Amino acid sequence: MAYKSRKEQIRKAFLTSLPVMAGYVILGIGFGILLAEKGYGVLWAFAMSLFVYAGSLQYAGVSMIESGVSLITCAMTSIMINARHLFYSISMIDKYKGSGKYKPYLIFSLTDETYSLLSDGSVPEGCAPSFYRFMVSLFNHSYWVAGSVMGSLLAEALPFSAKGIEFSMTALFVSSFSEQWYTSKDHTSALCGLVSSFLCLMIFGADDFLIPSMALIMLEMMILAGRRK
């Protein structure tokens, strides 16, 4: 198959990433402001967004840095917050197979929003799958880094109150879910996630429902996958 020019493929990837740009820049700004309010400057915002690149974990990380928690506590909290990425990764194994030099970065940059754009496996006509997915992931990452740096600089220049700003991540998750719901004809996975999360929330409470709900969702997905074979 003859692929389009790299410039055209990059343009296609950029257009695909535009919905995420709007959310990531705003959320990144929120993170930068929150971090600056705790006394950590633009280099911290840049480094965390470049090397950690995990929105909800970065928001939680601000509190962990401020309170000086142990490495063990930090590691356990990180695992609990990002456990859902294990399930994303399982569903992307076949799609990322054969990605070659792009694979390490594709694995690192698989966030909730990037997953929502790439999970259906579709690639615009004339685009090399691995390069296209790499560019979508790279654009999304750059939006997050840029937003974080902007937020840190704004916080240094203007007075901001960070009260309630951490809710912005929840808003983005709701937006991503809504987008997937409207663009997908099969709502089985979404309904499994909603019902499982609600049941575990009722049984285990708000502080402890995340891991059980992820385990239940994984079990349901495995059962559904087996029936579809």
Supply the key terms:
229 residues, mainly alpha, globular
Shape: globular
Q: Alpha-carbon distance between the termini?
A: 29 Å
Tally of separate helices: 11
Instruction: Tell me the β content.
Output: under 5%
Number of strands: 0
Topology:
Elements: H1 6-37, H2 42-52, H3 55-67, H4 71-82, H5 84-96, H6 103-108, H7 112-118, H8 129-157, H9 168-183, H10 188-204, H11 210-228
Helix pairs in contact: 1-2, 1-3, 1-8, 2-8, 3-4, 7-8, 10-11
Report on this structure.
The protein is mainly α and 229 residues long. The protein has two domains: 6-166, no CATH class; 185-229, no CATH class. The chain is 76% helix and 0% strand. It has eleven helices and no strands. α1 packs parallel to α8 (129-157), α2 runs antiparallel to α8 (129-157) and α7 (112-118) runs antiparallel to α8 (129-157). 27% of the residues are buried.
Summarize the structure.
By secondary structure, this protein is mostly helical. It has eleven helices and no strands.
